[in-house]
Specification:
Blueprint (H helix, E strand, L loop, with lengths): L2 H4 L22 H9 L3 H34 L4 H53 L3 H5 L3 H43 L1 H24 L1 H23 L1 H6 L3 H53 L5 H42 L21 E8 L8 E8 L4 E5 L6 H8 L7 E6 L2 E2 L5 H5 L2 E4 L10 H6 L7 H10 L3 H4 L19 H15 L3 E5 L7 H15 L3 E5 L11 E6 L2 E6 L1 H7 L2 H8 L17 H4 L1
Helix pairs in contact: 2-11, 3-4, 3-6, 3-11, 4-6, 6-7, 6-8, 6-11, 7-10, 7-11, 8-10, 8-11, 10-11, 15-17, 19-20
């Protein structure tokens, strides 16, 4: 039976995530680990008990061996007496050996079953939490570094728990039983062992704790290097075309150098800790041997106790030497968890408020009411922006770069929340709707669509997961994607590569359009949606988009003014303000800002710069 099927998850104290649909995860490493321990606490109790019995059996072996030797020496060479006295200690020795094997393997069996489930549960929840971070968060973090930290955090939780249960706890048992046995043999030996144990463990812990900061910095440096590698690999084509392959290697060397410096400091400190622990272990071994010899010479302990003392000292030394590694590894594991928790388990910027509801958007009537927003509060993009877009109206957004067009779309999609004012669709303040409810009823065709490394069928079906194959193919036909898909060897089963790199820009755009056709949402947003298409395909796609637009509210962001001239309405943005509002014909008659933009455009493309330098999408230049 699976672990999580036997022991039901226990409720945990929420910290972040319970207000936005994400799982509630604690924001401190210790509570984060305990959060997952509670889910499988029954299994952790079982494995702790098994490890306790395993450790007790192992540390009692020297006691059984000493009992055997004592029986041999007390028999004074009489075979019958020796065999009679050896029966009980030999059976004890055999039982302890069998128990060590049995309990150890049972603990291992639980660990093998529980470990992967525990790690996957951490990955599942922390990824779910990550999904709800804002656009700003993902703009500030490498995707590769985030993926690496999810993996390290999940592995770190499991490693931390195994370190505590299968290493530190058995070591504690060994040291406690050792001190007890030595007290039983001779109190002075017990006091010697107890004093050394307390001093050794205390100093080892303090020294290893000081290493924690170095370990965390080393883990962060490794994550940054991984993120830099992913970023460079993702942009390898750009590096090749700009002849910057050597530059990218040099850039990576910088990250590797910082990582190496952090790791050297961490490893150097760890080595100094090991020097202390190995020296202290040697002092214990020599000191206990000499002390036991003196007690035996004085007749205060027998041969059996002497052998037990020496055997225990050797076992304790082995545990002590491992303790140095265990402490350092433990803090490295905790450091990995802390690194991930502090990076990912942070308050979400855009959250669903308490009582957020699902609502159906049927008409698509959009209103911006006195909206104030800035990516930083001290530099607002919009300050009191108000605009009303009736249901079914097709509206173009134009203006120079930085004028507010993309921000308008970002706010409508609720990738950011305004600092003041509100955005209303069909009478619903979008802030009061769940994000899933809102996004399921808005469609976006971006200028540079990103596809999943999945089949073409899966990528198009992403618009409506429950769609049949026939519906997917029909959507592809409408988007003129079926033309190239049918010529590919595996057709709709073809994998598109990471971010769709196996497809051309125009092919990716047609797949994105097919996905939106399949979604059929009441509000459609196009961000230069045909810029990557050749003129013939664009003409065909425009006809498709005309059909798709029918009955929908449409927002079109365009640099090529000719693509929006036929729309019902055009909003002209300038420095966060709508300076003109009207149809193409009306705005030309006003001979204002739109007329100047129309006059300045070259080849149909709007200039991004005040000097009139035209902006052309890359596909238009080819």
């Amino acid at each position: 039976m699976a672990p999580d099927a036997t022991f039901s998850p226990a409720p945990s104290t929420p910290t972040h995530g319970d207000t936005c649909g994400a799982p509630a995860l604690p924001d401190s490493p210790l509570r984060f680990i305990l959060h997952f321990v509670q889910r499988y606490r029954g299994w952790y109790v079982l494995i702790t008990v098994l490890e306790t019995f395993n450790a007790v059996c192992g540390i009692l072996l020297p006691y059984a061996l000493g009992t055997i030797l004592k029986a041999v020496t007390d028999s004074q060479g009489q075979a019958s007496a020796t065999l009679s006295s050896l029966k009980a200690p030999v059976l004890l020795f055999i039982g302890l050996c069998a128990g060590e094997v049995l309990f150890g393997r049972l603990a291992g069996a639980v660990q093998v079953r529980l470990g992967p489930r525990q790690r996957q549960q951490v990955v599942r929840e922390i990824y779910h939490y990550l999904q709800h971070h804002s656009q700003r968060y993902f703009s500030n973090h490498f995707a590769g570094a985030l993926a690496h930290r999810i993996s390290e955090t999940a592995l770190g939780v499991t490693q931390t728990l195994w370190s505590l249960i299968t290493e530190f706890w058995p070591t504690t048992i060994v040291l406690a039983v050792t001190v007890g046995l030595l007290f039983h043999a001779q109190p002075s030996l017990g006091w010697f062992a107890l004093g050394w144990t307390v001093l050794f463990v205390g100093l080892s812990y303090l020294l290893a704790r000081r290493a924690r900061a170095h370990v965390i910095r080393a883990a962060a440096a490794r994550s940054d290097t991984t993120g830099a590698v992913v970023d460079s690999v993702t942009n390898l084509t750009s590096a090749r075309l700009f002849a910057r392959l050597a530059h990218e290697r040099t850039h990576l060397e910088g990250h590797l150098g910082r990582e190496l410096a952090a790791i050297r400091i961490s490893n150097g400190y760890a080595e100094r800790v090991r020097w202390f622990q190995f020296t202290a272990a040697a002092v214990f071994k020599v000191g206990l041997l000499c002390f036991a010899l003196q007690l035996w010479a004085d007749g205060r302990i027998g041969v059996g106790d002497f052998v037990m003392t020496v055997s225990l000292s050797l076992m304790v030394i082995n545990e002590a030497r491992n303790l140095s590694r265990r402490f350092l590894e433990f803090f490295e594991y905790v450091g990995n968890v802390a690194n991930g928790v502090h990076t990912i388990v942070r308050p979400h910027e855009v959250v669903d408020p308490p009582g957020a509801r699902e609502a159906t958007i049927e008409q698509g009537h959009i209103r911006f009411e006195s909206v104030r927003f800035g990516y930083t509060p001290e530099a607002p993009v919009f300050d009191g922006l108000s605009v009303d877009i009736p249901a079914g109206q097709r509206v173009g957004l134009v203006g120079l770069s930085g004028s507010g067009k993309s921000t308008f779309v970002n706010l409508l999609l609720r990738l950011y929340d305004p600092q003041a004012g509100r955005i209303v669709i069909d009478g619903h303040d979008i802030h009061t709707l769940t994000q899933d409810s809102l996004h399921s009823q808005l469609s976006l065709i971006p200028q540079d669509p990103s596809l999943f490394h999945r089949s073409l069928m899966d990528n198009i079906r992403y618009g409506r997961i429950e769609a049949s194959d026939d519906e997917v193919i029909e959507a592809a036909r409408q988007a003129h994607a079926d033309e190239f898909i049918s010529k590919i060897k595996d057709g709709y089963a073809s994998m598109v590569g990471e971010r769709g790199v196996k497809l051309s820009g125009g092919q990716r755009q047609r797949v994105a359009i097919a996905r939106v056709v399949l979604k059929n949402a009441p509000v459609l947003i196009l961000d230069e949606a045909t810029s990557a298409l050749d003129s013939l395909t664009e003409q065909a796609i425009q006809e498709t988009l005309e059909r798709v637009m029918k009955g929908k509210t449409v927002i079109v962001v365009a640099h090529r003014l000719s693509t929006i001239a036929h729309l019902d309405r055009i909003l002209v943005f300038d420095q966060g303000r709508i300076v003109e509002d009207g149809s193409h014909t009306e705005l030309l008659k006003q001979r204002g800002a739109y007329w100047q933009l129309w006059s300045r455009q070259a080849g149909g493309f709007l200039s991004d710069d005040p000097d009139g330098t035209p902006h052309r999408p890359a596909a238009a230049l080819l």
